[in-house]
Amino acid sequence: MTERGTPETGAEFDLEAFLPFILNQTAEVIGKSFQAHYRAAYGMTRTQWRVLAIVGRYGGLTASDICAIAHEEKSRVSRAVAALEERGMLSREISPEDKRAEILSLSAEGAETYRVLGQAALAFDQALRDRLGPEAETQLRDLLQRLRSVTGGAEKG
Amino acid sequence: MTERGTPETGAEFDLEAFLPFILNQTAEVIGKSFQAHYRAAYGMTRTQWRVLAIVGRYGGLTASDICAIAHEEKSRVSRAVAALEERGMLSREISPEDKRAEILSLSAEGAETYRVLGQAALAFDQALRDRLGPEAETQLRDLLQRLRSVTGGAEKG
DNA sequence: GGAAGTCAGTTGCATTGGCAACCAAATTAT
DNA sequence: ATAATTTGGTTGCCAATGCAACTGACTTCC
């Protein structure tokens, strides 16, 4: 790599110290590191994994519920659900109360996948906790929480 | 939203408490919140903004340097550089030492844009610091740093 | 009861992104 | 020297996004 020049003047902006950048960087590194579990092993998208996780955890909810919980966009969720159904991981059923809404639930295979990935995720989280130390990890969660609420917990869907 | 069912058994995985998810969530919220500055105001991509920031800060470096600094992928950087050049924000010049490499530098307009956006970024960062409190902010940076180094500071390019 | 608005979910389209193949210059090995 | 490898950078292709438009179902309000 060529040598870096020196900054010109006074209070200069430094991307590498920019919190949004650092946050994104960290999220990406950590995210990619877990990606292997659902992507390499199951060929799943991150959104698909999230949908699976949510439907696995709380059965019988709708796509909108997922949007709200995962703060995902409806089109993404829609496609993820379609893909998961395609793969026989979950099934939809039109809600008797509201014929627009579809109640989602995992198939046996989906449930099994959820179990495996859920365990992997728990282990992954535990590993992070182990390395940071429990109190640091709590602190981190707290700080991230505060950070998020700062900019308004704005929804997206 | 329909009511959530109850989890089935023992140590169940909960996406909303999953650190990678939380991290990503936070990064996205914060990131989008700053996006307005470069996207709405200048129609720039995040990668373009990053490239501009780096070239603005350290002039006369190459695309590979940017990849290393921003941990971005070379194709992304390549396209961002092309777009910025297209818009007259920066210029390339073949390195005399290595005819493959291109030395990048900002045009007057690019420099001005960098100045404006850099100031906005500094202000943004300061605002976050103000809300978290200075010691919490330092702590956060430290924790994120540790988190990143944990999973190996693996490069991507 | 019907028009107007809202809500669940889907789809089309134009960008974006990742990945691998690729070209040309540089370096290393034989 | 020249073949083989590595490196800087670009490009093609396909999957994934983002956003807005759209369909059909529900609600509201007159």
Characteristic terms for this protein:
homodimer, 157 residues, mainly alpha, Arc Repressor Mutant, subunit A, two-stranded antiparallel sheet, 6 helices, DNA-binding
Proportion of residues in helical segments of chain A: 55-70%
CATH class of chain A: Mainly Alpha
The N- to C-terminal Cα distance of chain A equals 43 Å
In the CATH hierarchy, the architecture of chain A is Orthogonal Bundle
User: What are the segments of chain A in which pLDDT stays under 50 over at least 5 consecutive residues?
Assistant: 5-9, 152-157
In short:
Two copies of one chain form a homodimer. Chain A has 157 residues and is mainly α. Chain A has helices at residues 19-42, 46-57, 63-70, 74-86, 108-132, 134-150, and strands spanning 90-94, 102-106.
Write structural notes for this entry:
The structure is a homodimer of 157-residue chains. Chain A has 157 residues and is mainly alpha-helical. Chain A contains six helices and two strands. The first copy, chain A, has helices spanning 19-42, 46-57, 63-70, 74-86, 108-132, 134-150; strands at 90-94, 102-106. Chain A has a two-stranded antiparallel ribbon. In chain A, helix 3 packs across helix 4 and helix 5 (108-132) packs across helix 6. The radius of gyration of chain A is 20 Å and the shape is globular. Chain A starts with 18 loop residues before the first helix and ends in a 7-residue tail after the last helix. Mean pLDDT of chain A is 89; it is low at 5-9 and 152-157. At the A-B interface, helix 1, helix 2, helix 3, helix 5 and helix 6 of A face helix 1, helix 2, helix 3, helix 5 and helix 6 of B. Chain A binds a DNA duplex (30 and 30 nucleotides) through helix 4.
